[in-house]
Each structure stands twice: as structure tokens, then as C-alpha cells.
Amino acid sequence: MTSLKRDFYRVLAVTVMCVAALASTRIAFANEVFLSLTFGGRTVRLSRTELLSSPGLRVIDVPAIAGYRRPMRFQAIPLARLIPKPSSESVQFKASDGFVANIPSGLLYGPSQPWLAIESQQTPWPPLGRDGQSMGPFFLVWLMPEKAGISPEQWPYRIVSISEAPALGKRFPALLPKTGANSPEQRGLRVFVANCSVCHKLSGAGDAAVGPDLNDPYNPTEYFQEAFLRKLIRAPASVRDWGQRSMPGFSPAVLNDAQLDDLLAYLRQMVRQRLARP
Ligand code: HEC
After folding, report:
1. d(C-alpha 246, C-alpha 236), whole Å
2. What is the mean pLDDT of the chain?
3. What is the position in ligand 1's atom list of the atom closest to the CA of 229?
């Protein structure tokens, strides 16, 4: 072989190797997932790889988690190590499926101990529902949810971003009942924010639209008999069921009867406010 030919084959071999290396990093990159954090007006994006090599990473056992409803072992970072203490009333967790939880900042620094669980590609978590997807890659879990009455809707999973946010009612005044402090309607608003606003808007106000708007054009308290509405909130499938149904039920352990009464008082009040609109 002439030396020119040898050089040609050497260059060809190097090129093939480069292309192969590039393709494999492209594949690794395609599998990389990111979490975006916005605090103090600054956004940082952390990759799963970075999070899994964080010095704050521990292995934790969570006794019974919302969603999987069984004990699970996770690699996780205490949330307080990951995010600065927020100056806002709440912290917003957005999920890839449109679910948005606005969790009061006080709860995040309270006794319930929130951790961010991170799913690694080597040990994927079990699938959650019919779509075969898990709750990963990022999932907010609580070590002691009972200490501050953390609702199952305050366990956001498939999280894509965490950010500071003023309270939902401040950002969307249309959600506020015009009733006295400590009225059932005001308590009902808190029940709505913690459990329902994660998926439903009301009067066009709110962050999420996984389910229908609960006041616009009509409110379920207007078109459902009360007994059936209560039944639907407690166990949607006991009223009607189909393959794509996705609203979870709220058992008395999650939402006691008094809280359900407050929630319905709030929903009825919002009908009055809609009818009073010019
Ligand atoms: C995880 C998301 C999610 C949460 C949380 C949730 N819902 Fe729903 N809801 C839905 C979806 C989606 C539907 C549409 C039916 C379905 O797919 O199950 C729905 C349907 C409904 C309906 C029936 C509306 C109609 O016209 O058919 C009512 C009433 C309702 N939700 C009330 C509530 C209340 C009250 C809460 C809070 C206690 C709540 N939902 C929490 C997702 C949710």
C-alpha cells in the first residue's frame, strides 16, 4: 500500500471512530433529564447526573407513599439542601403531565421533612399506571407526612421545575371567596388549593388544566345532586368509570367530612360570585 493510501485509511478510521463517539454521547445526552430551579429571580438547570452525584444524596426509606401506596427506598436529597429558603408564601412544583402543586413554604420547612427523590437509569422505579411510566425522574416525598397533614396531592411526581411563587389566591384573585376570615368558604379555599387546584382551574383561574374548570361555564354544585357530587369526590369510579379516567378519589382519611363540607361551601360561594359578575 502506498503511504498516501495508508493515510487515507487512517483518516477514515479516525473519522468513523469520531462519528461513533459523537453518536453515543448524543444517545447519553438524549437520556439526560433536567430539573429547573427558580429562586431569587435566578434559574438553574440541574441534570439527573449532577443530582445523583450531589454530596447531600442519601438512601431513604419512605413508609407508605402516595401514588405507589407501598414502602419504597429512594436515592434522595433533603429539599432544604437543594433550594434556598423561599421568600414567597409558596413553592410551585410543575410536573411534565400538567399537574402543578403550590405548596405553602411553611410546610417545606416544617416537621414533615420533604426530600427530592431521584430515579436513576440503573434502578428504575415501578410503573405507576396504565402508561407504564414511573413517578420519576424527580419526585417529592415526605418522611413524616402525618406531622403536618400533607395531602396526597402534595407529593408531586415527574417534576420538571421547582420555583418560588406567591400564594395561588394572590396570583389569581378570582379564586378568593368574598366571605369573612375563618368562614367555611375560606377554609374550603384552602382545601381546594391543596387538593383540587393541582389539576383544576376555577373561573379560568389557576395553574393547571388536567381536569375541567370547576366554575366556568358551570359549577358541579349546579349540575350534580349533592349526594352524587360527594360520592364522586370520594370515589369517582363509584359514580362513573372508563379507561382514561384519571381523577383520584379523596377518602375520609385524606379529606374528612368537615373539610368536604367546607369545600362544597366554597364551590357554592363561587357560583354566587360568578352570577354576580356584571
Ligand atoms: C390528579 C388530578 C385531579 C385532582 C387532584 C382532582 N381532580 Fe377532579 N378531575 C380530574 C380529571 C382529569 C377529571 C375528568 C374526569 C377524569 O378523567 O377522571 C376530573 C373531574 C372532576 C369532576 C367532574 C366534572 C364533570 O363535569 O364531569 C369534579 C366535580 C371534580 N373533578 C372535582 C374535583 C375536586 C373537588 C377535587 C379536589 C378535592 C378534584 N377534582 C381533584 C382530575 C383531578
Report:
1. 9
2. 90
3. 29
- Residue 236 Cα: closest atom of ligand 1: 18
Q: Is 249 in the pocket of ligand 1 (CB under 6 A)?
A: no
d(CA 239, CA 226) in angstroms, rounded, equals 12
- Grid coordinates in use for 115? 426530600
pLDDT digits (tens, 9 = 90+) for 12-61: 555 555 445 545 444 455 679 999 999 999 999 999 999 999 999 999 99
Distance CA 220, CA 246 (A): 17
CA of 247 to the centre of ligand 1 (A): 5
Ligand 1 center to 211 CA (angstroms): 5
Nearest to 149 by CA among 115, 195, 184, 82: 195
Summarised one tens digit per residue, pLDDT across range 153-169 is: 999 999 999 999 999 99
C-alpha span between 47 and 51 (Å, rounded): 6
